[in-house]
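Chapter review: from sequence to fold.
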Amino acid sequence: MKTHSTSSAVSYRDGRFSSSRLELADEVPVAISYNGSTHAVLMATPSDLKDLAIGFSLSEDIAAAPDEIEDIAVVELDKGIDVQVRLATDATERLRQRRRSIAGPVGCGLCGIESLDAAMREIRPVSAEIRLKAENVGDAVRAMGKAQALNLRTRSVHAAGWYHPENGLTAIREDVGRHNALDKLIGAMSLSGTNVSGGAFVMTSRLSIDLIQKTAAAGCGIIIAVSAPTALAVSEADRANITMVACARGDGFELFTHPHRIIGRTLQDVA
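The token string follows.
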């Protein structure tokens, strides 16, 4: 599916106006439907939509495992795309418990949740034993910048990647929505059979609570982001036993929770 379009514009450079043409990321309504009923409507980049559906189902605790998803059909409609998911019987009750009716803008990962309990859902602490060297953090962020094919064209999409300490950045997914990008990545990793606990998620965005909840649901023990987290995201990462690395730019970063997974000079050594 088409992920970007060309638009005319008027550019102002060096004190002069001139005509120009720019490549812009496409953004369309994407409905995720389960067993014939629409569950969520996301504004998303129309690529890797099966990955999105699988990752959303897993990270939102609708499906416990990929084998609870029997079929996925991507149907293009006049006003958007309907991703039709057929769930196995075992997932039906879980779907009812996690029901949404939303039309979520790109920046929203929890829009339309119907109760405070649903927003602050119970999460299982992550047991991943992965360790990264401090210099791996900079390597991961630099690799993300080079691998973002759509963002290099449009400068307007987020990305989520998976970094392995020995193999480097092995997977990346892009989307206008940061939570969509992470769901696409989780879906892709699930389809490939990769155990995400052996590496780190890398985000090009700020970290909010929904991204931490999705990381916990996937079982990944480290999340790295180029921007700062919210206070609630830090609290949730601490509760979920997730190592949060944020403000990762250049060779520096801030380590907010569970620092034991990042190997380097200790605070005592620095002092």
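Two observations follow directly from the output. The mean pLDDT is 90. The first helix runs from residue 49 to 59.
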